[in-house]
Write a structure and sequence with these properties.
Blueprint lengths: L20 H30 L11 H11 L4 H14 L3 H6 L2 H8 L6 H16 L1 E2 L3 H10 L10 H7 L8 E2 L5 H5 L6 H12 L8 H11 L8 H18 L22 H15 L18 H4 L16 E12 L2 E6 L10 E2 L2 E3 L7 H9 L5 E12 L2 E11 L10 E4 L10 H16 L2
Parallel strand pairs: 3-8
Antiparallel strand pairs: 1-2, 3-4, 3-6, 4-5, 4-9, 7-8
Helix pairs in contact: 1-12, 1-13, 2-3, 2-10, 10-13, 11-13, 12-13
């Protein structure tokens, strides 16, 4: 196993030549045994005293922890908290998540973005029910096997079927998988998320590596290579694995009053604490910009702090410049109702709702001409409504909206007609949710 030790005070920042990594590893491996013990002890002690009181730390339910980890992908903690609370209130079990209508799960997720996450979450819930059922009687399993044959039983077979048919309705329950490979096999769950769930929910020594952890480890160990590169990423995973494995032999000190009430913060949960301490340190202290090094519990072990290189690490290269995209949208009104359309399966934001819109490729085009060409009829009224700006991943979106009133006799354009009082009943894309709110207020004010 490849491992990197902490550097001593005279060591300079690493720029590892990976063709010599075996020699490099052997040379430094002896130091790791000493340094990792001190690092793990400091992290556990700091986390015990500084762990935040987050709602998903008040439970040991792996389903609730899983939902939190999916929501926290690409999303800040403060944003996730109300969504997590609402989700668990509406869908408190794996079974509830699996059976919920698509419209409901998208509405519960509205505003979090990255909607593939919620669709994968529901797929995963269905997979758990299919593969990890518990409490299913042998008779029920036999009946299921017979039904899978795909034929209708003849009269002669009815006594056989009756033998295996439970006398009372059988409730199928399921259990969230505990094995790392089973968790990793769930849709929408990668190596980091599986490691986080298994360590936090089950206190297993499974490593994690997200943006926060990468930043903490590259600074502590002084790794100058781009952490996204194959070899440096492999090294970081090994560091994380060795730290959490060492933590398994340790115990956390209960110094934080939150430990008395937070279910996941038990003295014996050292693997859970170690992984959460790395994430917590990256979120609160070892931040991307202006890190609070003076209050960092591991500053004496940190190469970047000693060499004044915290702003240079991690070396993730230059960010790709944002791409500007321009759209025109039409708030089409007829008899007090408004036309909305659902985005089709297979594209970004599938299943979500929006007003009719067209991309203009960054050019200032005649909106009236676009409308006339697209709908092939003349509007009774056509006027500018508002401009909405929205950012998503690497795109900067400008949405110019126009209010359009149709002749009363026009019945259909494709989509559904929605009263403004029901704008909140559907899950809109983020940009069009802003547009819906603006349009609702503006249209109400001029009546």
């Amino acid at each position: 196993m490849i491992s990197l030790p902490l550097c001593s005070s005279h060591d300079k920042i690493f720029s590892v030549h990976f063709s010599c990594i075996s020699w490099f590893n052997n040379f430094l491996n002896s130091k790791l045994k000493i340094k990792k013990s001190k690092l793990v002890a400091l992290l556990l002690e700091w986390f015990a005293a500084n762990a935040r009181d987050l709602p998903w730390r008040r439970t040991r339910d792996p389903y609730a922890i899983w939902v939190s980890e999916i929501m926290l992908q690409q999303t800040q903690v403060k944003t996730v908290i109300p969504f997590w609370n609402r989700w668990l209130r509406e869908l408190p079990t794996i079974e509830a998540a699996a059976k919920a209508p698509s419209a409901k799960i998208h509405k519960l997720w509205e505003g979090l973005g990255y909607y593939t996450r919620v669709r994968n979450l529901q797929k995963a819930a269905k997979q758990i029910i299919a593969q990890h059922r518990s409490g299913v009687s042998a008779e029920r399993r036999k009946l299921d096997e017979i039904k899978k044959c795909g034929f209708l039983p003849k009269a002669a077979t009815m006594p056989v079927l009756k033998k295996f048919q439970p006398e009372t309705p059988h409730v199928v329950s399921c259990k969230f998988p505990e094995k790392f490979d089973d968790v990793l096999a769930l849709p929408g769950v990668g190596r980091y998320t599986a490691g986080a769930i298994c360590s936090i929910a089950f206190n297993q020594p499974t490593p994690i590596l997200d943006g926060n952890v990468i930043r903490v480890l590259t600074r502590i160990f002084g790794i100058a290579e781009n952490p996204k590169e194959k070899e440096s990423n492999k090294l970081l995973w090994h560091i994380s694995e060795e730290l959490v494995s060492h933590a398994k032999t340790q115990s956390s000190r209960r110094k934080n009053k939150n430990f008395a009430v937070l279910a996941s913060l038990r003295e014996e949960n050292s693997c859970s604490h170690l992984n959460q301490s790395l994430m917590e340190l990256g979120a609160l202290v070892c931040t991307p910009r202006n890190p609070q090094c003076l209050i960092c519990p591991v500053k004496k072990l940190c190469v970047a702090f000693k060499e004044n290189l915290t702003e240079e690490l991690p070396n993730i290269g230059k960010r790709e410049a944002a791409t500007a995209r321009h759209f025109v949208a039409f708030i089409i009104e007829r008899n007090g109702e408004f036309l909305v359309q659902q985005r089709p399966i297979g594209i970004v934001n599938a299943h979500l709702w929006e007003f009719p819109n067209f991309e203009t490729n960054g050019e200032k085009k005649d909106a009236r001409g676009i409308f006339d060409s697209a709908f092939n009829f003349k509007a009774a009224k056509f006027q500018p409504l508002c401009t909405v700006k929205h950012s998503i991943t690497r795109y900067r979106i400008t949405l110019e909206a126009f209010r359009v009133q149709l002749p009363k006799h026009l019945k259909t354009l494709g989509g559904i007609w929605l009263p403004r009082a029901r704008f909140d009943s559907l899950a809109f894309t983020a940009a069009h949710k802003k547009l819906a709110s603006f349009a609702k207020n503006c249209i109400l004010s001029d009546r």
